[in-house]
Amino acid sequence: MSEVIEISAPLSELNSRSLKAGDKVKISGTLLAARDQAHKRLCDLIDSGKKLPIDLKGQVIYYVGPTPPPPDRAIGSAGPTTSSRIDPFTVKLIEQGLKGMIGKGYRADDVRQAIEKHRAVHFTTIGGAGALLSKHIVKSEIIAYEDLGPEAIRKLEVVDFPAIVAYDSHGRSVYDR
Fold first, then answer.
1. What are the distances in angstroms from CA 155 to CA 13, 21, 51, 79, 90?
2. What does the pLDDT look like over 84-97, one tens digit per residue?
3. Is the pTM of this model over 0.85?
4. CATH number of the structural domain 4-176
5. Phi, psi of 11, deg, nearest 5
């Protein structure tokens, strides 16, 4: 059984560069959560030269639209969204300093190239396990685009959030094996 690497988020370039495709990780710290519409709004602001409502430097975005929380939890079910849905927006956000993403499935070639060029990393986690994954999220706060409901940008505090490095900063992918 391979070793699980404990990492902190936000990520430094040193963290992102040291990870290799196939590494199993446990992430603790702060993640951002956002889906399609929030990504579109961020890219529209970039295109118009306006300031973003969040600082993306070193951040990791979890592609998730969580369900409402039960009374005793920080968040409801929080399973990953298919990463390719976010591909049209990802390169611009990586260019703004985004260091990591968490989703499921393949990434487009231009996204893979941006990950390598900007020393970022893409993690994958288990689809269909949203209730289990939500147990690793200890705090959730909407920080932008509240009107988007589940697709709003959230700040998540996570402890030992399980993931696998799917695309590393050296151009390798678990999907290429």
1. 21, 26, 18, 16, 18
2. 999 999 999 999 99
3. yes
4. 3.20.130.10
5. -100, 145
